[in-house]
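Suppose you are handed only these lines of text.
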Amino acid sequence: GTTLGASAAEKGRYFGAAVAAGRMGDNTYLTILNREFNSVTAENEMKWDATEPQQGRFSYTNADRIVNHARSRGMSVRGHTLLWHAQQPGWAQGMSGSALRNAAMNHVTQVASYYRGRIHSWDVVNEAFADGSGGGRRDSNLQRTGNDWIEAAFRAADAADPGAKLCYNDYNTDGINAKSTGIYNMVRDFKARGVPIDCVGFQSHLSNSVPGDYQANLQRFADLGVDVQITELDISGSNQAAVYGTVTRACLAVARCTGITVWGIRDTDSWRTGQNPLLFDGNGNKKPAYDAVLNAL
Ligand code: XIL
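From them, the structure of the protein bound to XIL can be written out as follows.
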């Protein structure tokens, strides 16, 4: 293939980008999006603060802009994200206990129902594990409602949209480490008990290198019976092109690695300001990192 999306499709995968609704009027941006990618993730527009700014009042205008554009062009959509400790609306930040649990599960049900049939994969829960050596959960208002909040969210999402693949998504999980092993143990437990989980997302916000056991880590999750996806790839540093190639080859080497999403299009679109971690420069030109990915696909 001559584009990322077409080349990935030849290998049975998708190649996606995070998209910001506010940039879709930019012609350079839109041209690259439409030419190169066959999957999109809303960068912010499907988060809890965006979709339920007041409790029980749902707002889908910006998310729909992205979803409708994608679907009208045959791109698939990753839903990001139903529950997360960050980017919660103010009203939820101030809640706790059963009131928060009920509000959170209602949020999952409402948003997943609204988009039922239109989402390839949902990040049902994002970043619920702690960094460091403990391997346990991150403290958050959601975690304080009870350790079962994650499985409750997956069951609610499954009831609302049984056709979507339901993913757990996190960062600093790129190698075999305490955090990724904590998640691995949760997924193994979910599979053993029939909790509906279909996929694990590896954000892969990287800085100039990738752990040597990256592919082995993807493979150990796949061996639990879930798909794996690289969900927010961006890579800073002088070794950028080579690392992009390594990550792409690792995904292709794992049969259940079903797709790669980069977290933005041009360097100037990146949340990592000044780090130039993406595949296109600020003028929309392909970088060596782009060639490395296309060659690896
Ligand atoms: C980031 C967005 O890119 C920014 O625009 C926003 O200000 C903060 O969130 N992990 C995630 C993403 O799961 O949702 C985050 O996106 C980046 C880190």
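What can we learn from it? DSSP finds eleven helices and nine strands in the chain. Residues 43-44, 126, 203, 232, 271 surround XIL (CB under 6 Å).
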